[in-house]
Amino acid sequence: MIHKNIKLVLSGASLGYGIYQFIEGNIGNGIFFILLAVLILFFYFRNELILWSFLKMRKQDLEGTEKILNKIKHPNRALIQKQQGYYHYLFGIIYAQKNLGTSEKHFKQAIKLGLSMDHDLAMAKMSLAGIAMQKRRKREAQTLLTEAKKLDKNQMLGDQLKLMQQQLKKI
Description:
Layout: H1 4-24, H2 27-45, H3 48-58, H4 62-70, H5 75-78, H6 81-95, H7 100-113, H8 118-134, H9 138-151, H10 158-170
């Protein structure tokens, strides 16, 4: 994994060399280096290891996802804030089946750092509500469920939220 500052330097250098190639009359080379700069800049905002771990998660390979995420050393320095949020979000999903305390810590950290998409934030809050229900914290679970319901605009989690609210009434 390349550090985020190195990605910015490489992108700037590639952009500068692409402009130089345009000035020299090498249009094809200039286009290539500008596209390379855009690609490197894309990976600045979307970390390659987090994208790879989302693909592993889609295949429901939790161990593979954890291995990929463990390759990120010092996520506080190597990732921008939203990427750190998704880093903790993925760890929260992984540990939801192993250790609820660790999962709760990661989900809270992900919410604190911020997630780009509302349905991811709704999923994190719904998972936190489930953990709070298992720990018999009814009031906290209720507030988290209502927040998750507000964030779920496309009704992707509608059935799960209804099921959790029914279970909450039984507590």
